[in-house]
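Protein modeling request. Please complete all fields; requests missing the sequence field cannot be processed.
Requester role: graduate student
Desired output: 3D structure, token encoding
Chains: 1
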Amino acid sequence: MDNVSSHKHFILDGFSELGALRPVLFIPFSIMFIVSLSANSLLLYIIISQRSLHSPMYILIAGMACVDLSLPLFFVPNMLLNFLFDWRGISLIGCLVQMHFIHFVGTFQCTLLAWMALDRYFAICTPLYYHEGMALQRFLRFMIPPVIRNILIITAFVSLAGPLSFCASNVINHCFCEHMALVELACGSTTINNLVGLLAVFLIPVADFIFIAASYVVIFRSVLKSGRSGIKALDTCITHIVVISISLTVALTAFLSYRIRVGLPAASQVFFSTMYLLFPSCFNPIIYGVRTTEIRKNVIQTIKQRKTSALSKRQELFLHNM
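Delivered output (322 residues):
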């Protein structure tokens, strides 16, 4: 195997089964991309511009909006060019860099949900010590370990993918450099890569979701004991639970589509894997904007102010022309 040259250039060939209809995918994915950018940008603008939203809960929502805003930028523009102009080529280095950024930023979707669950725990179960528990100096001890974990694990499995020999095919059946889609092309042993990939799944999203589930069990028990006074406080948790449920469902579907061979078409695997990254970026800001009262009020107020300002400018321009 040492004497066989390894491919250094790859072709991203996701949805090739569609043939001549493949360029049509540009329309739905470009719409989702625009929705993701505009909705998350608006959410960030509202939280940053309104001082009343500078509390820990809203700062964490802004952090989620940053993740949802930046994640599609690492793969959607290249994917759209692929659909529209058939630009499918990518180097091995470019593939590994894209893979690292996609997976690293993607890990913070579930990590931020874990931090949000912790915020709700302090707010509902220990309200008298909420500001003390969520003070930056204290909260850093909950933030730094997951960040270090994400960096080490993602760097490990991306680094292990680089030295593999790709001596058979250089066609990646995906629209971006997904880890398993690249590893499947290796002609040597990929046991370590598969084990590290599974380890990454259990140490990051699974571990975070176990922590989230445990937090909400404690929160619900506390609310049930407190009676009606706790029901109103629980409303802030419902939004997070909706986002968590959607994220977990899409993540598990994407994970199982690659690791359980049930005769799924290749296009279905690519679709689920792409939706795992793109759908939450479109869905999360809309849910937070609709379900979170303070954010919804500020969005409506901002839109009204924009309309009033635009109307005033038109009136001034009309009077000036007269």
